[in-house]
Amino acid sequence: MSPNPAAPSPARRRRRSVLYGLLVLVLAAAGALAWLLRGPLPAYAGRVHLAGLAGPVEIVRDRNAVPHIRARSVHDAYFALGYVHAQDRLWQMEMNRRIAAGRVAEAVGPGALPTDRFLRTLGVRRAAQASLANLDADARAVLDAYAAGVNAWISGHPGPLPLEFLATGVRPEPWEPADSIGWVKMMAWDLAGNWTEELLRLRLSMRLDTRQLQEFLPPYPGDAPLPVADFAALYRSLGAQALALGPTPLPHTPEGIGSNNWVVAGSRSASGKPLLANDPHLGLTVPSTWYLVHLEAPGLRVIGGTLPGVPLMIVGRTERIAWGMTNTKPDTQDLYLERLDPARPGYYQAPDGPRPFVERREVLHVKGAADEELVVRETRHGPVLPAGGSTAGLSPGYVLAMRWTALDPDDRTYQAGLRMPLARNWDEFVATLRDYHTPQQNIVYADVDGHIGFIAPGRVPLRRPDNDLMGLAPAPGWDARYDWTGYVPFDALPRRLDPPGGEIHTANDKIVDPAYPYYITAEWAPPYRSRRIGELLAARPRHTLDDFARMHADVLSVQARELLPRLRYTVTRDALSSEALERLQRWDGTMDAERPEPLIYAAWMRALGRRLYADELGPLFEQAWDIRGVFTANVLADRDGQARWCDDITTPAVEDCDFQLSAALADAVAELARQYGPQPAAWRWADAHVARAEHRPFSRVPLLADWFELNVPVGGDVYTVNVARHHVADAAHPYRSTQGASLRMLIDLADPDASRFIQATGQSGQRPSPHYADFLGAWRRVEYLPMSMRAADYETGALGTLKLLPAR
Length: 808
Prior knowledge:
Blueprint: H1 10-38, E1 46-50, E2 57-61, E3 67-71, H2 74-101, H3 105-108, H4 113-122, H5 124-133, H6 137-156, H7 163-168, H8 177-190, H9 194-204, H10 210-216, H11 231-236, E4 258-264, E5 275-283, E6 291-297, E7 300-307, E8 310-318, E9 321-327, E10 333-339, E11 347-350, E12 353-356, E13 358-364, E14 372-378, E15 398-404, H12 413-419, H13 426-432, E16 441-447, E17 452-455, E18 461-463, E19 475-476, E20 484-487, E21 495-497, E22 503-506, H14 528-538, H15 545-552, H16 558-567, H17 575-585, H18 597-617, H19 621-624, H20 629-636, H21 657-676, H22 685-688, E23 690-693, H23 702-708, E24 710-713, E25 724-726, E26 737-741, E27 743-748, E28 756-759, H24 776-780, E29 785-786, H25 791-795, E30 800-806
Parallel strand pairs: 1-30, 3-6, 10-19
Antiparallel strand pairs: 2-3, 2-30, 4-5, 4-22, 5-26, 5-27, 6-7, 7-8, 8-9, 9-16, 10-15, 11-12, 13-14, 16-17, 17-21, 18-20, 23-24, 25-26, 27-28, 28-29
């Protein structure tokens, strides 16, 4: 029989089989990739039976993926909150609890060990467990319900975990109530930071005398410097140099982490009821620090911003009241130089004689490396900071210990926060705050009855009258006069109700007048933002939410506006400087993203800072280089002879401020020309001033950072109402913004369901989700989402309804 000419040859059959096999592999790989990318995403509709629920719960996802939780009990409402937090933010929650517990190196390797050592030493997780034991039964029950909801999602989700778990190999452990309390304490840590300024003063005292130190770190404008000891003389008098200068970088708490809030009475609003605005300023991250949600159950009806991992409504409103927060910046951390007893190893000197250190051992597990044992010592003041890092340079006979209010075992801040949404009026609201310990916050309040108020709850240490350091620098731990003697009584904390002017605003600035009898801090934020808010409130007799939205968007820098008259008469050295200065002469200080003037100004101030104090600070300059608006203004105005900072002490000539302004402008424009071209008209603040939302940990992995982190150009600076702080000491990105308005909130008590919110990224923490970054554009444009508790509003266009049902 002759062969069939139409039949394929064996070679063709083999090629066809290979192609079919490759096609199957490609399709399988595509399916696996789709499963990995889409599998972790939660369902927004359907029915799920879950153990731990007492009754059915409905979760309506509105058009922006904000969950509206309707439950038949408070227990089930918080169970569902844990469930939706885990649905959208499980990796963020995993990282947050690992940070608080000092267990990040287990997930990402040895690079996280310094942070783990520090937080294990502080004992944040231990403090969280102690606080948990001091909560009442109702608060414990909510934490248990929330943890059960988180764990229901972890154990019941049928698909893969989010990509970060796959990449790191981490498996989430069951969520515990102490994980939630730990993150509350880490937020307090983020908003404290006085200890870093103490270390800075300690180091600077080796280069600057007391007068110079008080000028470089000036008091609040209008205040006299505190009558404190001569730091350098004090440390020399200890009989041994307590600190040697070294290149070790210091952790730093920059300006710009804080917030704005303001409230007006009905007499100052177009609606006839109070209006309230808030925008917390925090480090920008992706996903956002905030998660928007609405909770509804018998006795509970609240909407606003939560922190994933924490069953609390931090800022928001109920049917009757609304509240917003800014950081008070109290001095709640003190460092103590503890002197070792040379005759008795393992002892340190106390006012009543030698005492033994209390020791505990911690085991740190490290991905890809051997375990590490950490021996932690504690004194009567608190934990001894680990050797190296920020404590590098201490003489062998000394250690540094920290006292911090959040380590007190009776810290019941969580309990206070849980009860705030249950208050129906001012008196009940204030009563809930008696348990509030840390971080001290400036809380503005409004209610449907027309009242507005302000209170700053929190534990503020009392210091003795003969304490001549006042928490500004590390104190001799063996001297009892530096010990805390208690806390400011709750009833003496700053507060106001229905002030005559019908408005209250705070922006981390000084909140007490000279007659206030207690010391809170010497490190209030400069008043620039607060003054601008006051100007805008005074500009209209009555306001609307649209007016408040324009205030949120305001990027006029009062600090720049006040310096410009001095800068405009600078003698220029070259044509480029002349063209740049000519632009600034027509500029009003508005930090508009699309204009060149903000970039010229920021670069000029950066260069001027180097010329003003690099010579005095020497090896400490890079650690202390920052946006120092009040110091710069004082020097250029020659307040109390401060223009002497303009002299470069490393040269034989005596330079004045005119010389340094001219030289700094030339330095700045030359740098900008190299970076952005030779035409100032083509420069844009937006080209350099990009807000970066950092992903943990993938922003540190070059191949992944471009996909996971978010970047968007913005206007503003550290002193504008619409805050966007840059870091002048960052050589690679000196104008990149990493702190800003992490959330914005506007509420009219005449129509609370017309409330407006926005956070910086999106509801989802999963990169493949369409809700990972869908808020970013609106956030940049200072636009908002509607946040209503009316079912007819949030059900219109809803993405779906998920029903959680008790287990069969």
